[in-house]
Amino acid sequence: MKNSIIVGLFFLYLFCSSISFAEDKIFIGSEACKDCHEQEYSNYMKYSKKAQSFESIKKMEKKLTPQEYQSCFECHTTGYGKKGGFVSQKETPQLKDTGCEVCHGPGSLHAESEDPDLITRDVTMENCNTCHSKDRIEAFDFKPLLFGGAH
Ligand code: HEC
Ligand code: HEC
Ligand code: HEC
Ligand code: HEC
Questions:
Q1: Is the CB of residue 2 less than 8 Å from the CB of residue 9?
Q2: pLDDT for the residue 145
Q3: Model pLDDT for residues 35-73, shown as the tens digit of each residue
Q4: What's the CATH code of the domain at 143?
Q5: Is the CB of 33 under 6 A from ligand 4?
Q6: What is the pTM of this model?
Q7: How many domains are there within the chain?
Q8: How far is the CA of 37 from the centre of ligand 4 (A)?
Q9: Ligand 1: which atom is nearest the Cα of residue 108?
Q10: Above 70 in pLDDT, residue 104?
Q11: CA distances from 101 to 38, 63, 119, 132 (A)
């Protein structure tokens, strides 16, 4: 009897901790990284076209149907279609560009705790493939491409 209560409590604990984990890890936008990562932030704002990626689609909005326009969000914003990701320019203005978190993953827990284990450091080519065509990536060396797109 006692054992089954302990086992039950253990699973309850696992259940609750996995829920709170999933709930808390959301996208917060590049601006939120600025104070602690000034160098990366200013390089990104200055040199990465990603920092203006919403402008690119905004310019074309009038020529597109609403559905076509929406299809651009997948690559030109941060976390569209994912939990805690971009919804619309009005509701989630902080996520409208392709920000830090498209490579480093949702940063809310890391930004609160400053724990490096709660953010992705090792970004791989697989990640780039979700938005960039393979051919295009292979046409560059990985390293320059990496820093060209980031900081
Ligand atoms: C309140 C301060 C703070 C905020 C906000 C913050 N970070 Fe950090 N970050 C840190 C600290 C501290 C470290 C650990 C630095 C070290 O170990 O040299 C770190 C480390 C990292 C690392 C390296 C992780 C590793 O394993 O080495 C990455 C990547 C990173 N942060 C990305 C981000 C991104 C993206 C954001 C915004 C979504 C962000 N950080 C917001 C404080 C912060
Ligand atoms: C969520 C989608 C997304 C992911 C993931 C992504 N990119 Fe991009 N990237 C874009 C978009 C969108 C642009 C174009 C922005 C514009 O011009 O409007 C871009 C632009 C670039 C550019 C053009 C040069 C510049 O100054 O920005 C490079 C280089 C680049 N990305 C490299 C990378 C690399 C390397 C990775 C993987 C580590 C990566 N990107 C991951 C969406 C993405
Ligand atoms: C599958 C991901 C993806 C989707 C969906 C997407 N884009 Fe892009 N877009 C990119 C990437 C990646 C780049 C950067 C290309 C590069 O420099 O290699 C880019 C670049 C651009 C540029 C800048 C071109 C330049 O030369 O600076 C414009 C404008 C643009 N996209 C508009 C749109 C519009 C409008 C839509 C929706 C109809 C859209 N994109 C949908 C990934 C995407
Ligand atoms: C296109 C993908 C991409 C984007 C966007 C991006 N990063 Fe990174 N970031 C990387 C990669 C890849 C590394 C690992 C570099 C290495 O291994 O030396 C990295 C490393 C880091 C580190 C670890 C310390 C360092 O410089 O090596 C921090 C902190 C960091 N990024 C913060 C940010 C912040 C803040 C932003 C947004 C302002 C951002 N990154 C945007 C790909 C990206």
A1: no
A2: 54
A3: 999 999 999 999 899 999 999 999 999 999 999 999 999
A4: 1.10.1130.10
A5: yes
A6: 0.89
A7: 1
A8: 10
A9: 38
A10: yes
A11: 15, 29, 9, 16
With tokens 């791989």, the residue in question is 124
Range of the domain at 136: 2-149
Q: How many CB atoms lie within 10 A of CB 142?
A: 12
Amino acid at site 127: N
Residue nearest to atom 8 of ligand 2 (CA): 149
The one-letter code for the residue type at 35 is D
Query: How far, in Å, is the centroid of ligand 2 from the Cα of 128?
Result: 7
User: Residues 44, 45, 48, CA angle at the centre, nearest 5°?
Assistant: 55
Model confidence at 140, pLDDT cuts 50, 70, 90, reads low
More confident residue, 7 or 52: 52
Task: Give the number of whichever ligand sits closest to the CA of residue 45.
Answer: 4
Q: Name the token pair of 42.
A: 């200013």
- State the Cα–Cα distance between residues 88 and 82, nearest whole angstrom: 13
Per-residue pLDDT at 82 exceeds 50 = yes
Q: How far is CA 63 from CA 60, 75, 87, 137, 148, in A?
A: 6, 18, 21, 28, 29
